[in-house]
Specification:
Blueprint: H1 3-59
Length: 60
């Protein structure tokens, strides 16, 4: 195997590793957005419950 082949093989390995890391980063980003959305929904629900309790206190 010549030096040119060795460099080409190494280049292909680096490109594959870069693609894999980009895919992993993309997946982690999607997971984090999903978790943030869940937290936002939970926060909104808790705020609505608190507002409902507040309104009931003043209605009575």
């Amino acid at each position: 195997m010549g030096m040119k082949d060795q460099f080409q093989d190494k280049s292909e390995q680096w490109q594959q590793q870069a693609k894999e890391k980009m895919q992993q980063a993309r997946e982690r980003g999607q997971e984090q957005r999903g978790k943030q959305r869940d937290r936002d929904e939970e926060t909104e629900r808790l705020q609505q419950e608190e507002q409902d309790r507040f309104d009931q206190d003043y209605d009575a």
